[in-house]
Amino acid sequence: MTKSVTRKSSPAIKVRCLPQEKSRIEAMAKSCGLSTSAYLRALGLNYQPKSILDLQTVPTLAKVNADQGRLGGLLKMLLTNDNRLKKAGKEQTQKTITSLLNDIKRTEDLLYETVQSLKR
Q: Are residues 40 and 25 in contact, defined by beta-carbon separation less than 8 angstroms?
């Protein structure tokens, strides 16, 4: 019988680093969903691990995008319904439009902040 070679039975490579470097390497490995060994092996073999934080941000972006769509739809519905505009009156219509535009702006800001967090 021949034994198969596994990583566990293979010799380890030791890397000396300062405590703060070790902490940073461990944090980077964790953010990629890898063990420290797997992370360093991937880097050593010229593979750039992808951060799982990016994958966690995608659902947030999708939700913010859906919110933007709903707000835009509400604004369009309000502006295209002449009967509703006449019933509500000019002052109430202006308040509603201003409120919707403010909500859209807040949602845009959230979307921008989320995208910026991906760049870090």
A: yes
Amino acid identity of residue 75, one-letter, is L
Nearest to 42 by CA among 55, 28, 57: 28
With 0-12 / 13-18 / 19 or more C-beta atoms within 10 angstroms meaning exposed / middle / buried, residue 107 is: buried
- Domain boundaries, given as residue ranges, for the chain: 15-50, 52-119
pLDDT in tens, 57-93: 778 778 888 888 888 888 888 778 777 777 777 788 8
Q: How far apart are CA 110 and CA 114, in angstroms?
A: 6
Taking only the tens place, the pLDDT of each residue in 20-43 is: 999 999 998 888 888 898 889 888
- Segment 39-45 long-range contacts (CB within 8 Å, at least 24 positions apart): 40/15
Report residue 101: phi and psi, to 5°: -65, -35
Vertex 111: Cα angle to 115 and 73 (nearest 5)? 145
The 8-class DSSP code of residue 10 comes to S
Q: How many CA atoms lie within 13 A of 107 on its CB side?
A: 19
